[in-house]
């Protein structure tokens, strides 16, 4: 049967947006962009390094465990003064080996004399050593072999300790006085905390996948608490700190002692101090409030103590970081838990900065070995960080500043990413395009309603009945919220239990880059409040549904306000106690819920369908009010209650086929 094409006309800001092709550059390969190609053919200067470990006292006398690695020749430290790259970690700076050596990087263990061999294929810190940088790795206070009680994430003492360590590095005889900080996740989040203290020796940062506004991405979203990953993280650091281990006289095998402590006497003392702080169940005692009221910005128990210092929620540090002037290289991933946050960092920093986004997850763990995206990420992060530090720590006039300020890669397939340069974010050529929820059957899935997602709203308003199923879940093994390397998980079981709205098949490829948003008209027969989970999926031609992006909003948190930072004018739930308490209970009168999803960068292929799935729970991952009887809700579509999904589309509007 011959296929015809439906072109999408979108009402946007009161005007009709043309579907003519926008001025969009052609995609390029990685090699064509030059990303990851810096000094690629230049041989390493060193193939050895030497590790030494000491305690460095913070200003209050607390001893911090520090390893420093220096380039070496024939088992001896190379002559000269080196720029220093600093990893400041919560997860243990090194692990001891039975033969007396240590391991920081699996492919280059240090022997009992501290000597390590740098492989020819080295990337990251080992590559930096090979090119003549020193590398310093320190355990944070209360963690690893450092002394002090364990602290909850983000205490302002971390920034002060970081200041002391950076200034110490600048004074060492093997230092050229210039320090750069690098790392991912917590090792990225600590960098602005240190920069805000303005140590003189800190000259640049390289930050991967760091949160910016925890209550709106990491810890919660739309008032809904992410208990799964926060609980897993808390338990993990408790184990690393040895807070729950009986240590007595047995040898500690998960944290390396410093060189002057071969019998681990000091390490045991440090671990005893760890036990005086930290609480792996600290968040759990607030679960009842999270279940009933949600996460309230003005009552966050894990921010209350630190918020006056502006440390825990990192967006409060922006002004101080900007005053520091420290240049920042930013890396984000579309499959990361912080896929929105690194965009916010770029929007709000006024220091010299670059932004690079790819189809990457938070970590490298997962059931997908030898994934080409991992190799691509490793190459880009290593080589672009080297370019950045060469410029700001060594003063080399490379092209770090002249290159485009933004590079982003759209995932076409597992093996192929299409790369673009941009002068701004959002990139030129990205236009908001609406797809409207419709009662018209899509005949694509056995769900509670099998509705459609169409270019124009239906003329009359209708109500799609929805009964919440609390067994819906994105899984507890392979989601981004367990920091696993799992891409586009199977949504089939969720779709069957939920409301779905599916487009016709795409007539041609569709490029989506940025933050989708959802506007829903919601009513209720019996529940005063509810959580709404929205999932954007790609439906393959064989019917498989793969998760691309997600967002959440508790109905009582629906009041929107102005974000305390630049957020591209995305919907921002205030989540203030007064607003939540004042919210009218749900009823049969529809109310509007509008919220942002997680950012994505993806090519939806011709023949694929887009699906918006609405669920009422994500069991095992979030804290949801499980009410009895279960909520009987309605999503209103069409007419003057036109619920819609808005996509940031690069180039032409989506076009669909119809039989």
N- to C-terminal separation? 7 Å
Query: How would you characterize the largest beta sheet?
Result: 13 strands, mixed
Helix count, DSSP H or I runs of 4 or more residues: 12
Instruction: Tell me the CATH architecture of the largest domain.
Output: 3-Layer(aba) Sandwich
Which secondary-structure class do the elements indicate? alpha+beta
Tell me the total number of β-strands. 33
- What is the strand content? 25-35%
Q: How many separate domains?
A: 2
Characterize the overall form: globular
Q: What's the layout of helices and strands?
A:
Blueprint: E1 4-7, E2 10-12, E3 15-17, H1 30-33, E4 48-57, E5 63-73, E6 76-77, E7 82-89, E8 95-96, E9 102-103, E10 115-117, H2 124-130, E11 134-139, H3 157-171, E12 175-184, H4 186-195, E13 202-208, E14 220-221, E15 224-225, H5 227-240, H6 265-274, H7 287-292, H8 318-324, E16 328-335, H9 341-348, E17 353-361, H10 372-394, E18 406-413, E19 416-422, E20 430-438, E21 451-454, E22 462-467, H11 492-497, E23 499-502, E24 510-514, E25 517-524, E26 531-539, E27 545-554, H12 577-582, E28 591-596, E29 600-604, E30 609-615, E31 632-637, E32 644-650, E33 655-658
In short:
The protein is of the alpha+beta class. Helices cover 18% and strands 30% of the residues. The strands form 6 sheets. Strands 20, 21, 22, 23, 24, 25, 26, 27, 28, 29, 30, 31 and 32 form a 13-stranded mixed beta sheet that branches.
Notes on the protein architecture:
By secondary structure, the protein is α+β, with helices and mostly antiparallel strands. The chain has two domains: 4-22 and 428-658, Jelly Rolls, CATH 2.60.120.260; 48-369, Alpha/Beta hydrolase fold, catalytic domain (Rossmann fold, 3-Layer(aba) Sandwich). Strands 20, 21, 22, 23, 24, 25, 26, 27, 28, 29, 30, 31 and 32 form a 13-stranded mixed beta sheet that branches. Strands 4, 5, 6, 7, 10, 11, 12, 13, 16, 17, 18 and 19 form a twelve-stranded mixed beta sheet that branches. Helix 2 crosses helix 10 and helix 3 packs across helix 4 (186-195). The longest helix has 23 residues, at 372-394. The chain is globular. It starts with a strand and ends with a strand.
